[in-house]
Design brief:
alpha/beta; Rossmann fold; 6-stranded parallel beta sheet; two-stranded antiparallel sheet; 9 helices; about 35% helix; globular; acetylation; GroES-like_sf
Length: about 260
């Protein structure tokens, strides 16, 4: 298994040995491709920043995506964690089967209002890959001692191309808070970007070892939505941008043999 910030969409890659990890027995190559980025991100957000404990509640945005499905599985390794997950309605049955107690259709509902109906005080942890005004909503949804972990700005992308108006709107609505406000609210805000941890070999390696152990115990298993050859990368990306996938979209040099 390989970690690299870029350059993996090719048949042969050259990476430092410190960024490679042995696949556990029984793992497929597709699962190995789906494991590292998604599960390291979800694990460090939930446990290193979030300090997830039994009987807590978590809101997972884009719950049917790669990090979302990883986070759901990792939440289930902790006793009695209540999971809220946002996704389009067509994915709700799959989310319920995977352990999401409360799927929310963000396209037709105000997810903050839906969370409040079920949990008036809010949630303990919010995983925020959206940015902009959604980060403010996430902060307001936290219980006292709650933690917001932001790890992306998906709101910058609308459709297949970057929309300058959407980018400007997201920038204008970007969440901003002072240390004094954090003190008054008894809440925490954290930022996470795995791409800027490529020198933290010991830290990341320790997380990978824990994930491999969880995989070997059958507690986590990467969910593969589909596998695409390099010459169909445009179709694969379109499926992701249209948010039709449940789990990870995988690229391979050649089409899988039937």
């Amino acid at each position: 298994m390989v970690l690299a910030r870029s350059g993996l969409w090719q048949e042969v890659v050259n990476v430092p040995a410190s960024q490679t990890f042995l696949m556990p027995e029984g793992m497929s190559f597709e699962e190995a491709a789906a494991l590292l980025v998604n599960y390291i991100t979800a694990y460090m957000i939930l446990f290193d920043f979030g300090n997830l404990r039994p009987n807590q509640s978590v809101l997972i945005h884009m719950a049917a995506g790669g990090v979302g499905t990883a986070a759901i599985q990792l939440c289930k390794t902790v006793e009695n964690v209540t999971i809220f997950g946002t996704a389009s309605a067509s994915k709700h049955d799959s989310l319920k089967e995977s352990g999401v107690a409360h799927p929310i259709d963000y396209r037709t509902m105000d997810y903050a209002e839906e969370v409040r109906k079920i949990s008036p005080k809010g949630v303990d942890i919010v995983l925020d890959p959206l940015g902009g005004s959604d980060t403010s909503k996430a902060f307001n949804l936290l219980k006292p001692m709650g933690k917001l972990i932001t790890y992306g700005v998906a709101n910058l992308l609308t459709g297949q191309k970057k929309n300058l108006m959407a980018m400007a709107k997201t920038w204008w609505n970007q969440f901003s808070i002072s240390a004094l406000q954090l003190l008054h609210h008894n809440k925490a805000v954290c930022g996470y970007h795995l791409g800027y941890m490529d020198e933290e070999f010991e830290l990341v390696g320790g997380v990978v070892a824990k994930l491999v152990n969880l995989y070997s115990q059958g507690k986590i298993k990467p969910k593969i939505d589909s596998v695409w050859p390099f010459d169909q990368v445009a179709d694969a990306m379109k499926q992701m941008q249209e948010k039709k996938n449940v789990g990870k979209v995988i690229l391979v040099p050649e089409a899988p043999k039937e």
